Amino acid sequence: MTKVLILGSGNIGSVAAKLLHETGDYHVTLASRNKEQLYTLSTQTTLTTKQIDVMQTDLVALFKDFQIIISALAYHLNTAMAHKALEAGVSYFDLTEDRQTTQSIMELASKAKIGQVFMPQCGLAPGAIGIIGHGLSLEFDSIESLKMRVGALPLYPSNELKYNL
């Protein structure tokens, strides 16, 4: 069974951990510094949790226990996480949308060993929206343009916050 470590127990990290865990194909560990979130998740699921602070943990040693690292941390931490994954010899995925972070990780990827994958921008946009757009485009013989929108910002906001939650 593939061992996956997800860093960050916020909304996205928690959902990703639950979804991967529920497939039965992965042994997922969700790591976070947020003790309360981890406790809540561990009482609601059979998911493995681990309390860590990525700034004070020997990440290379930790990462070596896994085959895949998924960062659901703030984008400014992702380059450091990718460096540690490279050093540990494990594959790395993140959800960043930040172009500079993505460029740094892609440069790191050129140093990866055979079979070691580095894939930033695996979130909704970019990420899933590109895959969906590509899949839709295959249904046509030719395409003049394809415009995809992602997010909850309505074209004509009508509520007080001017935002859709």
Q: Walk across the major sheet and give the strand order.
A: 3-2-1-4-5-6
Kindly state the number of beta strands: 6
| Overall pLDDT metric | 90
Give the amount of beta strand, in percent.
15-25%
Structure description:
The structure is a single chain. By secondary structure, the chain is of the alpha/beta class. Helices cover 41% and strands 16% of the residues. It contains 6 helices and 6 strands; from the N terminus they run βαβαβαβαβαβα. The protein has a 6-stranded parallel beta sheet, with helices on both faces. Helix 4 packs parallel to helix 5. It starts with a strand and ends in a 28-residue tail after the last helix.
What characteristics describe this protein?
165 residues, alpha/beta, 16% strand
Helix/strand layout:
Layout: E1 2-7, H1 11-23, E2 26-32, H2 35-44, E3 48-51, H3 59-63, E4 68-71, H4 75-88, E5 91-94, H5 99-109, E6 118-119, H6 124-137
Parallel strand pairs: 1-2, 1-4, 2-3, 4-5, 5-6
Helix pairs in contact: 4-5
Task: Give a brief description.
The protein is an alpha/beta fold and 165 residues long. The protein is built from six helices and six strands. It has helices spanning 11-23, 35-44, 59-63, 75-88, 99-109, 124-137, and strands at 2-7, 26-32, 48-51, 68-71, 91-94, 118-119.
